[in-house]
Structure formats: structure tokens, C-alpha cells
Write a structure and sequence with these properties.
Largest sheet: 7 strands, mixed
Helix content: 25-40%
Order of helices and strands: HHHEHEHEEHEHEE
Structural class: alpha/beta
Shape: globular
Length: about 230
């Protein structure tokens, strides 16, 4: 009897496998770093974010589950997996994903992945602090690596005064307390410190929390609005 097996049942996405296989011999790629994008704590932190996005609820103002045609912008989105796959596995109506990153090679792999899946996408190799022409169409900004960047109000150039995003754009921001890593320029010690740094509106917080990662450090997350949602 011939048995057909979906590779996903053993944890291997065929499209990701092909992409990594194709660049395995290319010395300009750091394979250890690429594999690190799918490490247990990377998957854990992104799965946590997506779970809380889906369950975010407030009877006073609209949340993502009530929206259609959701456009996502990743800040420092790296190669795009596993975050895109996790978002696409939810009931959220994700129709477009834009990845902003300074690493052209990571963006190239992101592009290959999105094309393989047939997903609508765009990618920009630039600093996330640079305003883009389509920012005002974004419904959800995700930054799972804010420890690498200045505080949210700084790189959005004071988002309450500059109309870079829609008033009802949701921000999901993560950081950690891994201060010992050289390029971690903006770690935090608590979720309350992360809230203070993001300056999301106190009336628009949908979620705040922390988890202990498998490497023994903590990851913190806040989800909410830059503006008072009662005035949308």
C-alpha cells in the first residue's frame, strides 16, 4: 500500500525547506542565523503574539477580529517565517503583508516565501523610521524585535502628530531583557517599562504580558492603539 505523507505532519514546511536548501551553499547567507529564525523561542514568542491578537477583545471599540481586509506591516520582519504562517493560520482576514527590514538577503527570502505561498506582499529595504507612501493603509504593525530599535514614538516620529498610520491601527510590540547581546540597544526589564517606551494610549491597551523563554530570559509584549480608541 502506498502511503502519502504531508510533510507538515512532521513539522517541515516544504516551501521553507526548498528556500533554505537553495541557499545552503551560498556563503553570503548565515545558515545558523536562518535556522535561528525558527528556533523554539522564536516560534514561542510569535505564536504568543498571534494568539493574543486573535483573542484581543474590548466591547467599547473595534478589534482585529471584527475587521475585513487587514493589511499588516512587519518592522524588522527578517525572513517572514514563522510569523506569516502563524497569522495566516488564524481567522483574521489578513490580505497583505509588508516587511520592512535593513537586510536585503532576508527580504529576498521573504519574497520567495510569499511568492511560493501565493500571498499578497510588499517589501522595503529601509529603516522603519522612514515614512512610506502606504503606511496610512496599514491596520496592524508588528515589531517582535524592538530591542534592536529606538522607542516606538521616536522611530515613528511622534505618531500622534504625524499622520503616518490610521487612528485605529493596532500595534503589537515585543522586547526582552537580553541586555548582554551587543545589538540589543533597547531592552526592557518589565512589561510596564515597555508600555512606557511605546507610549501607546492608556485607554487603548488590548493586552500586556510576559513569558519566560526556554533560554531563561523573559519576553515582554504590549498590544494596543496609539490614539484613544473612544475617539475613533
Amino acid at each position: 500500500m502506498k502511503v502519502m505523507m504531508d510533510l507538515n505532519t512532521i513539522g517541515v514546511d516544504p516551501d521553507i525547506w526548498r528556500i533554505l536548501w537553495d541557499v545552503a551553499d551560498d556563503q553570503s547567507y548565515d545558515m545558523k542565523q536562518l535556522l535561528g529564525s525558527m528556533s523554539p523561542h522564536q516560534v514561542q514568542s510569535k505564536a504568543w503574539l498571534v494568539k493574543e491578537l486573535v483573542h484581543a477583545y474590548n466591547e467599547e471599540f473595534p478589534v482585529l477580529m471584527e475587521k475585513d481586509d487587514i493589511k499588516v506591516q512587519l518592522h524588522g520582519g527578517w525572513v517572514g517565517f514563522p510569523i506569516v504562517a502563524l497569522l495566516k493560520s488564524t481567522p483574521l482576514d489578513i490580505t497583505h503583508v509588508e516587511n520592512i527590514d535593513l537586510d536585503k538577503k532576508s527580504l529576498h527570502l521573504f519574497m520567495r516565501y510569499m511568492k511560493a505561498k501565493g500571498y499578497s506582499y510588499s517589501e522595503k529595504c529601509k529603516d522603519v523610521g522612514v515614512k512610506g507612501p502606504t503606511d496610512n493603509q496599514i491596520d496592524l504593525v508588528i515589531n517582535t524585535s524592538s530591542e534592536h530599535m529606538p522607542d516606538l514614538p521616536v522611530y515613528l516620529k511622534n505618531f500622534r502628530k504625524v499622520r503616518r498610520y490610521k487612528r485605529d491601527c493596532v500595534f503589537a510590540i515585543q522586547s526582552n531583557n537580553m541586555f548582554h547581546i551587543d545589538d540589543h540597544i533597547n531592552c526592557v526589564n518589565s512589561v510596564e517599562e515597555l508600555i512606557e517606551k511605546t507610549e501607546l494610549h492608556k485607554n487603548g491597551l488590548l493586552y500586556k504580558g510576559e513569558i519566560e523563554m526556554e533560554n531563561g530570559y523573559k519576553r515582554f509584549m504590549v498590544i494596543g492603539y496609539a490614539h484613544d480608541p473612544r475617539n475613533f
